[in-house]
């Protein structure tokens, strides 16, 4: 009985701590924004200054789509740190690497030379899938990346595609899977210099600040504010993770969607609109005094 009472006390204490960390006002606002969305949504927000968080289905499993390129990037830099690869080493492109689509790297000719650093740029900035699958292989494959994730405390985030034993997960979630809380935590730890080593974390963070796909969440942040991000988009899922170096304090958030009814690809897609609404609500909540216009670019481009 005494042990039960102690466990109960610890449980109540942990709930009290969690309640203190929860940003109730922002949780209420975001819950209202997503309530009519025709699909499933998960959101995790953390203000690095005051420690306040929002967690809405934050530990549920969602498809990563191209957000899996963050773990792939980490896998490559882990091998660089161990001297198995060099960041600026020359690589030789082969036609067998081609992933059909509109990728830049896929337009290269057999035998063309390109530096690993530029393949990394194509993966993160342009979300080039041919580049991404090449780097996944260079990182040692999905299994090696997943081992790193497991060893560093990530229970949900995994590479599924081209990874032995992950066929069932790939059928459910596609290339990769994650949760809003885990993907946001990866971004946070990169920013804070906690992954691999501080110098490597800085290189990874700077690479993530160069996103070509900037018409959803990024468009809701004023143009003079630095951000780092990665998007993911397939027919039934649109998601993104963003770190905002805001005047009142850095904040990170990840919004994931799945089983979306609207699977169109235009600017007015329901999930794309949701990404913009959530991003703007978070910005205004943390920067209530900001008078800078945000979001107008997304209406025209």
Automatic annotation (TrEMBL):
GO terms for molecular function: beta-lactamase activity. Keywords: Hydrolase, Signal. It comes from the Bacteria. Residues 42-257 form the Beta-lactamase class A catalytic domain. It holds the Pfam family Beta-lactamase2. One of its GO terms (biological process) is beta-lactam antibiotic catabolic process. It catalyses: a beta-lactam + H2O = a substituted beta-amino acid. Its EC number is 3.5.2.6. Residues 1-19 form the signal peptide. SUPFAM superfamilies: beta-lactamase/transpeptidase-like. This is beta-lactamase. It comes from Chitinophaga caeni.
């Amino acid at each position: 009985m005494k042990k039960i009472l102690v466990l109960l006390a610890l449980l109540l204490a942990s709930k009290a701590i969690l309640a203190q960390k929860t940003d109730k006002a922002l949780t209420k606002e975001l819950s209202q924004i997503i309530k009519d969305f025709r699909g499933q949504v998960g959101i995790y927000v953390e203000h690095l200054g005051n420690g306040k968080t929002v967690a809405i289905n934050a530990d549920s499993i969602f498809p990563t789509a191209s957000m899996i390129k963050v773990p792939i990037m980490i896998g490559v830099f882990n091998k660089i740190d161990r001297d198995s690869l060099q960041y600026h080493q020359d690589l030789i492109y082969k036609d067998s690497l081609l992933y059909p689509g509109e990728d830049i790297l896929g337009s290269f000719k057999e035998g063309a030379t390109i530096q690993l650093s530029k393949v990394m740029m194509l993966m993160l900035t342009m979300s080039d899938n041919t580049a991404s699958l090449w780097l996944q292989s260079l990182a040692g494959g999905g299994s090696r990346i997943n081992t790193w994730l497991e060893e560093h405390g990530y229970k949900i985030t995994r590479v599924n595609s081209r990874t032995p034993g992950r066929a069932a997960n790939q059928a459910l979630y596609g290339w990769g899977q994650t949760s809003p809380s885990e993907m946001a935590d990866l971004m946070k730890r990169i920013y804070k210099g906690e992954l691999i080593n501080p110098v490597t974390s800085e290189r990874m963070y700077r690479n993530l600040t160069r996103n070509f796909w900037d018409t959803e969440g990024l468009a809701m942040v004023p143009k003079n504010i630095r951000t780092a991000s990665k998007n993911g988009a397939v027919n039934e899922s649109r998601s993104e993770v963003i770190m905002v170096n805001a005047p009142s304090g850095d904040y990170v958030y990840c919004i994931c969607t799945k089983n979306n009814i609207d699977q169109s690809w235009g600017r007015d897609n329901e999930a794309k609109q949701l990404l913009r609404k959530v991003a703007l609500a978070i910005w205004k909540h943390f920067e209530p005094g900001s008078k800078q216009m945000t979001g107008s670019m997304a209406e025209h481009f």
